[in-house]
Amino acid sequence: PFNEDGSRRTDTHVYDGVKFPWYVPRTSLEAMQSFEVRPDDVWICTYSKSGTAWIIEIVWKILSASGDIKGDEPLDKAPYPDFHVFGPVPNHEMLTKAPSPRLIATHLLPKFLPPQLLEKQPKVLYVARNPKDVAVSNYHHCNTLPNIKSFDSFQDLLNDFMSGEIIFGEWPDHVLYWWKKRDEDNVLFSKYEDMKKDLVGTVRMVCKFLGKSLTDEQINSVAQQCTFDAMKKNKTRDNLCVIAGIDPKDTPFMRKGKVGGWKGSFTVAQSEKMDKWYHEAIDGTELSFEF
Ligand code: A3P
């Protein structure tokens, strides 16, 4: 992931109207069209910075406790099929050889997802988070990770976020697509703010959705291992950065883990502008968030 002069790559490209970072190359996006989905896959679909690593950890610990996943914890518990960060083999190719059940994560907007996701109907877990906290988390993500283009100011991030020029594209398109699918049997739509309120209840709900019966003790243990503090201490997500050549102290994956942290970053004017944008996007959809 380096340029010829030894600096890190931070370039982006536009594919079908959406901006992508260099590590989501056109070839991988094209490959999604024929990517083979398995009915027993578990897909984690999220808008970036909405709690992806958190739900991955919960699902992984449940499948591990139920005996569906065996062996040591891999560095990458849920590879992104559209990513090709380093080495000659893109993730989508590597995933074709992975044993079932595969855990697969993606931030892709619906139009880029493998068509087989609809046909094979694997279990899909969606996590949505209020867009103000997503924006702040995104800003820190882009400005801490050396392999992503940083923003000169939070206002610049907000402009891109609300216009959909941000990498991976529009928040409303993403969240509303899965919100409309919330009642389908293979979809579990959850919110970050609810997970914060009741982690044990979340683990129980995910267990039921996955069709796994764990004891109360196992459920409590999974929840215990998936608190913010436990995940920060165990550095699972950060270790993944190490293989990408990023100093683990520089990773923004376990940053604050709060609801409402946006209040320290938004000006009143910025907040009002986002309120307007938010209401225009989601009013009338029955979806709402806690801020
Ligand atoms: P903050 O930057 O607001 O702290 P993603 O995994 O989609 O990139 O999302 C990252 C966000 O989820 C970060 O938010 C991170 O701190 C938060 N997060 C990760 N694990 C968490 C946990 N166990 N509990 C609460 N928040 C968590």
General description of the model:
This protein is an alpha/beta fold and 291 residues long. The chain has a single domain (12-282), classed as 3-Layer(aba) Sandwich (Rossmann fold), CATH 3.40.50.300. The chain contains 13 helices and six strands. The strands form two sheets. The protein has a four-stranded parallel sheet, with helices on both faces. A two-stranded antiparallel sheet has the order 1-2. The longest helix has 15 residues, at 268-282. The protein starts with 11 loop residues before the first strand and ends in a 9-residue tail after the last helix. The mean pLDDT is 94. Adenosine-3'-5'-diphosphate (A3P) binds at residues 46, 48-54, 133, 137, 140, 226-228, 231, 252-257, 261.
Secondary-structure blueprint:
Elements: E1 12-15, E2 18-21, H1 26-31, E3 42-46, H2 52-65, H3 91-96, E4 103-106, H4 116-120, E5 123-128, H5 131-144, H6 154-163, H7 171-180, E6 187-191, H8 192-197, H9 199-210, H10 216-225, H11 228-234, H12 236-243, H13 268-282
Parallel strand pairs: 3-4, 3-5, 5-6
Antiparallel strand pairs: 1-2
The structure holds adenosine-3'-5'-diphosphate.
